[in-house]
Write a structure and sequence with these properties.
By secondary structure, the protein is mainly alpha-helical. It has one domain. 44% of the residues lie in helices and 9% in strands. Strands 1-2 form a two-stranded antiparallel ribbon. Strand 1 and strand 2 form a beta hairpin.
Protein backbone atom coordinates (compact mmCIF):
# COMPACT_ATOMS: atom_id res chain seq x y z
CA UNK A 1 0.00 0.00 0.00
CA UNK A 2 1.17 3.49 -0.80
CA UNK A 3 1.18 6.49 1.48
CA UNK A 4 -2.04 7.64 -0.21
CA UNK A 5 -3.96 4.60 1.02
CA UNK A 6 -4.61 6.28 4.37
CA UNK A 7 -6.69 8.89 2.52
CA UNK A 8 -9.01 6.44 0.79
CA UNK A 9 -12.75 6.21 1.45
CA UNK A 10 -13.43 6.11 5.16
CA UNK A 11 -17.18 5.67 5.53
CA UNK A 12 -19.41 7.29 8.11
CA UNK A 13 -22.18 5.26 9.69
CA UNK A 14 -25.51 7.00 10.14
CA UNK A 15 -28.77 5.77 11.57
CA UNK A 16 -32.17 6.65 10.14
CA UNK A 17 -35.20 5.43 12.05
CA UNK A 18 -33.31 2.45 13.46
CA UNK A 19 -31.61 1.47 10.17
CA UNK A 20 -27.84 1.85 9.92
CA UNK A 21 -26.16 2.87 6.68
CA UNK A 22 -22.50 3.30 5.75
CA UNK A 23 -22.04 6.48 3.74
CA UNK A 24 -18.84 6.58 1.69
CA UNK A 25 -17.18 9.79 0.53
CA UNK A 26 -17.46 10.82 -3.08
CA UNK A 27 -14.23 9.93 -4.88
CA UNK A 28 -12.39 12.42 -7.07
CA UNK A 29 -13.33 10.39 -10.16
CA UNK A 30 -17.02 10.66 -9.18
CA UNK A 31 -17.05 14.46 -9.20
CA UNK A 32 -18.28 14.34 -12.78
CA UNK A 33 -21.68 13.53 -11.26
CA UNK A 34 -21.85 17.14 -10.10
CA UNK A 35 -23.30 18.47 -13.35
CA UNK A 36 -22.58 22.16 -12.88
CA UNK A 37 -23.82 24.71 -10.40
CA UNK A 38 -26.89 23.23 -8.61
CA UNK A 39 -28.40 26.72 -8.44
CA UNK A 40 -28.52 26.79 -12.25
CA UNK A 41 -30.01 23.31 -12.66
CA UNK A 42 -33.71 22.58 -12.84
CA UNK A 43 -35.27 20.90 -9.81
CA UNK A 44 -35.48 17.66 -11.80
CA UNK A 45 -31.78 17.84 -12.71
CA UNK A 46 -30.88 18.60 -9.08
CA UNK A 47 -32.84 15.56 -7.91
CA UNK A 48 -31.21 13.28 -10.50
CA UNK A 49 -27.75 14.49 -9.49
CA UNK A 50 -28.52 14.01 -5.78
CA UNK A 51 -29.93 10.51 -6.35
CA UNK A 52 -26.85 9.41 -8.32
CA UNK A 53 -24.51 10.72 -5.65
CA UNK A 54 -26.44 9.05 -2.81
CA UNK A 55 -26.57 5.75 -4.72
CA UNK A 56 -22.81 5.89 -5.28
CA UNK A 57 -22.19 6.66 -1.59
CA UNK A 58 -24.29 3.69 -0.45
CA UNK A 59 -21.87 1.27 -2.10
CA UNK A 60 -22.41 -1.45 0.53
CA UNK A 61 -26.12 -1.51 -0.32
CA UNK A 62 -26.07 -2.83 -3.89
CA UNK A 63 -29.77 -3.64 -3.74
CA UNK A 64 -30.74 0.03 -3.24
CA UNK A 65 -32.08 1.45 -6.51
CA UNK A 66 -32.17 5.01 -7.82
CA UNK A 67 -35.96 4.66 -8.05
CA UNK A 68 -36.14 3.88 -4.31
CA UNK A 69 -34.02 6.90 -3.51
CA UNK A 70 -36.21 9.12 -5.71
CA UNK A 71 -39.30 7.96 -3.82
CA UNK A 72 -37.96 8.57 -0.30
CA UNK A 73 -39.63 11.11 1.93
CA UNK A 74 -37.86 14.42 1.45
CA UNK A 75 -36.61 14.51 5.05
CA UNK A 76 -34.82 11.17 4.59
CA UNK A 77 -33.33 12.34 1.28
CA UNK A 78 -31.99 15.45 3.01
CA UNK A 79 -30.42 13.39 5.81
CA UNK A 80 -28.70 11.13 3.27
CA UNK A 81 -27.47 13.96 1.05
CA UNK A 82 -26.19 15.95 4.04
CA UNK A 83 -24.30 12.86 5.27
CA UNK A 84 -22.70 12.38 1.83
CA UNK A 85 -21.58 16.00 1.67
CA UNK A 86 -20.26 15.90 5.23
CA UNK A 87 -18.26 12.67 4.85
CA UNK A 88 -16.89 13.95 1.52
CA UNK A 89 -15.77 17.25 3.05
CA UNK A 90 -18.10 19.16 0.73
CA UNK A 91 -20.30 20.98 3.19
CA UNK A 92 -21.19 24.59 2.49
CA UNK A 93 -18.90 25.81 5.23
CA UNK A 94 -16.06 24.28 3.22
CA UNK A 95 -17.09 26.01 0.00
CA UNK A 96 -18.33 22.82 -1.66
CA UNK A 97 -19.19 24.28 -5.05
CA UNK A 98 -15.90 26.14 -5.33
CA UNK A 99 -13.95 23.03 -4.35
CA UNK A 100 -15.82 20.81 -6.82
CA UNK A 101 -15.27 23.32 -9.62
CA UNK A 102 -11.57 23.59 -8.77
CA UNK A 103 -11.08 19.80 -8.72
CA UNK A 104 -13.00 19.33 -11.98
CA UNK A 105 -10.90 22.03 -13.66
CA UNK A 106 -7.69 20.42 -12.42
CA UNK A 107 -8.83 17.01 -13.70
CA UNK A 108 -9.73 18.47 -17.10
CA UNK A 109 -6.39 20.27 -17.41
CA UNK A 110 -4.57 16.96 -16.82
CA UNK A 111 -6.37 15.17 -19.66
Amino acid sequence: MSRLSKFLATPKEIEIQGEKFKIYPVKAKDLVMFDGDPAKLSKEEQLKMTVKIIKKSLRDDDDVTEEEIENLDSDILVVLSDAVLEVSGLTDKNGALARIKQIKEQNLSRQ
